[in-house]
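#random but structural
TW: two for the price of one
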Amino acid sequence: MREFPPRSPLRLVVLISGGGTTLRNLLDQIAAGRLDARVELVVSSNPRAGGLEHARAAGIASQVIERLRFDDDAGYGHAIFDACRNVQPDIVVMGGFLKFVPIPPDFEWRVINIHPALIPAFCGKGFFGQHVHQAVLDYGAKLSGCTVHFVDNQYDHGPILLQRAVAVLDGDTAETLAARVHEAERAAYPEALRWIASGRLRASGRRTWLSEAVAETRTTG
């Protein structure tokens, strides 16, 4: 069984590729006192990502690492996680990060992502953004939602941490469904991070759960 010791504050690196809505949400939650965490670094795959401005406004260090500079995924992953190692995060948060990176052994169970559907449905390579919501509608599904999961070396495959369901309504478009799923994501991602920081999270194989017991306290500073 794997245990996750309590952390206060939870030290984060956030990976982004676009507007940084996840980053902005986490910063708002931290500022409001609803999430005991600190963003140590923002890493973007895109030099024009709007999320970089959120980092600058908050006084958070940022780094741009573009995929085109590397011959393969392995080299790109090395660069991404070397940047992470420099600030010693507890958790790496993928916040709309659209590039594939292999997870090195020292970051297993330390990288999380959120997917805008209920995994294992409507997930995998090519299922991102509006493509997911349109696929839900085309299939005629009555429920969608979001899934926070640990990241492994397959798309949308790692152990599930938390899921929130969202009803698919008659007359929904991909845009209206996306808006409701996004609201669920705004609540689910900070909640998942609170679970990790609490000292109550446990995992065995692909199963995760919250225990009544709290692991030995560790403060990262």
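TW: number two ↓
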Amino acid sequence: MADEITKEFAANLLPKRPQDSHKGTFGKVLNISGSLNYQGAAYLSSIAALKTGAGYVTLASIQKVIDNIAAKTPDITFLPLRDSYNQCIASDAFSELKDFIKSYTVLSVGSGLSDRPAAVAFVDETLKYLNETAMPVIIDADGLNAISNLSLTKLPPDSVITPHPKELSRLIDVPVEEIQNDRVQYAKFAAQKFGTTVVLKGHNTVIASGDEVFINKTGNSALAKAGSGDVLTGMISGFAAQGLSLKNAAILGVFLHGLSGELASKELTEYGVLASDVLNGIPAAIKTLLGI
């Protein structure tokens, strides 16, 4: 059995916003994202965390990505990492990152990292470290591809993975068609196999955490666009930074992500919505939950 995420349920999860606050009140996100060919993923996932209320976001990436994202937005900070042939994060770049991680509230990793061997090795080192810590982590996209290549069976104890059906297929070695025929069963199976919270994206996204399963009914075909998943990763990390459990951050992020797509499509049609429109629609979606 699975519980549907209702508007009332989602609204009750919204983090409080005390007026006697500062940027540290709402948490710090370290987003490890981007590569030469996937720079938009770094932007979308970073800004989405701020749009959902995180107080501070740092993008850790290669210098080429940082230079371009810095020219686009003044709203995030940057941590340059060594690169591999100017393409992606170097395999040994975690050594540059390790001393900074402890000062952040939540980590997100994987959006647009690329599937090059250097990036896979970097993810391996990062996950080994996180397995020994209590830091919350959201793992998406090429982070998931790296896990598949590494044949891992356990993930950090406080983690969320956000696979689409093909990514989940690689993770659990089950055909996509079989997964799609019983999305609840396989999301729950993966959650128990890896000891994580699973967000199985797609029509009626499924969130599985332990024995609990939730189904989201917001969203439409407008979300079937490159970059949409990067926005969701940022939204989940933003809510986690504000103190929500990863399960609740995933539930709220998925609901609002779908709602933002719906609202954007009313003006732009389901054909014309871009991932950046979903990103920019987050405040309107939150206003809907707040009833204002």
